[in-house]
Amino acid sequence: MANEFPFEISPMFEGERVRKDDMFVELAGPKSRGFELVRAAALDEIEDGKFTLIGPDLSKMEEGSRHPYAMIYRIAGKLVEPDLEAIVERRNHDFQNYIQGYMHLNQRYDVWVRINKDAIKKGLNSFEQIAKATMMLFKNELSFIEKIEATYITDPDEVEKQRAEAIKIYEARDARTKGLHDEDVDVFYGCTLCQSFAPTNACVVTPDRISLCGAINWFDGRAAAKVDPEGPQFAIPKGEVIDAIGGEYSGVNEKAVALSGGEYSRIKIHSFFEYPHTSCGCFEVVGFYIPEVDGIGWVDRDFTGIAPNGLAFSTMAGQTGGGKQIIGFLGVGVNYFRSPKFIQPDGGWNRVVWMPKHLKEKIKADIPPELVDKLPTEENVTDLKTLKEYLEKSQHPVMQRWTKEEAAAEEEAPSETGGAGWSMPSPSMPAGMPMQFGGGGTKLNFKNAKISIDRIIFKSKEK
Ligand code: SF4
Q: Do 193 and 85 share a domain, yes or no?
């Protein structure tokens, strides 16, 4: 059946990257707009295999060009229900990456696609070929889908119009978990879809923590596990509560050991520093510890500038992903900012010291009102010096940590320094965290370093 296509289709092409020089076209992505969406429909509403294109086809696109791109699928089947939409939608990423020469990244409104020049040379010339191959994979792999049709859009105005509607649908899905909390359920859901490129990553999806890709919430996990219990989404009985604040459960730990191949043995679902959730690479937002102010900054994929620690999203994403517990960096879904348990063992919102303006605007309604003006963006601060000044000026609650740490440091200060030396407040940095020292002329990055320091004394240079 796959012979009808001018490209090979196999899971072995997952992970294939299309670099800029090899790219025929770029679709959606950070410099354009797009989305992917799956909607459930009644069996008699769907014409199985139908494809509609709104906008120019691949054959009309110039080499090296960039275009908006939307992919909408309607699915039907006796077991298909709206709760399955997000799960099926997430598989678009997998299945499209089975297509040789076609790279699909991210999800929902963040999709980013590139098509390789070689694929065009081999005969790929229409989005219909892509859509038909993807629909074939959906039906082959997800047996509950009995009928499917696809609409792809490359017309810029139509992408904009339908994207606005899609965002309302994503928001409505995410809002369903608002009244439900971790303590209200006995079962969480796991997902190992991303083990193809991050083999030790297993996402744990709970009512209070959406998946880090932002595409799968607790209800979605439940629906997927119901129709395909042996599939990549599955139930995780919580077991005993070990740490209610950090979000540690015996059932999750048991499953984590089994799924990580022994890479780690404990997960605290809401902790930033202690046994944090792993991050595969699909996260919508990266959290990064800033030792200089003992706070946590957050940066999302849409931010193309440099965060106050001197690093871009792409650099920090590289440190965060890979399916390991990286203490000091954490990948999350945007909706996790709306969780009442958001990094609660680490101070929650009181520990948040920076995020890009557009991300802040997106989640403004969920930021505690008293913190909204105290939280700087790229418009207020540009580096560690201006960050510290802003936090001091706005009396950000993270300053309470500085006072405590300075007091503790003073108490411990040895008498021989006579108080003349300066002791750096030693933030509660767990062993193993990536540390960055910067702000002056030198920056040192220690990734996964275990450094234990009892005391640092700075003395002026003898002349
Ligand atoms: S990021 Fe996690 S929840 Fe999302 S698809 Fe990957 S493994 Fe599944």
A: no
Q: How far apart are CA 259 and CA 330, in angstroms?
A: 19
Tell me, using a 6 A CB cutoff, whether residue 58 lines ligand 1: no
Least confident of 207-211, 413-417, 446-450: 413-417
- 198 CB-near residues (< 8 Å, 6+ apart): 278, 280, 281, 321, 322, 323
Does residue 163 or residue 409 have the better pLDDT?
A: 163
Segment 33-58, tens digit of pLDDT? 999 999 999 999 999 999 999 999 99
Query: In ligand 1, which atom is closest to the CA atom of 232?
Result: 8
Residues 214 and 295 in one domain: yes
- Residue 424 domain-assigned? no
Domain residues for 49? 2-175
Does 306 lie in the same domain as 190? yes
- Cβ–ligand 1 contact at 216 (below 6 Å): yes
pLDDT of residue 456: 61
Q: Are residues 148 and 201 in the same domain?
A: no
Beta strands 147-153 and 69-76, pairing class:
antiparallel
> What gap in Å lies between CA 113 and CA 227, rounded to an integer?
29
What 3 state SS string does 177-206 have? CCCCCHHHCCEEEEECHHHHCCCCCCEEEE
Read off the CATH number of the domain in which 256 is found.
3.40.970.20
Domain-located, residue 423: no
Strand pairing class (147-153; 51-54): parallel
End of a domain among 348, 372, 393? 393
The verdict on 194 and 298 lying in the same domain is yes
CA 131 vs. chain centroid, Å, equals 26
Question: In testing the pocket of ligand 1, which one of 193, 283, 284 has its CB within 8 Å of the most ligand atoms?
Answer: 193
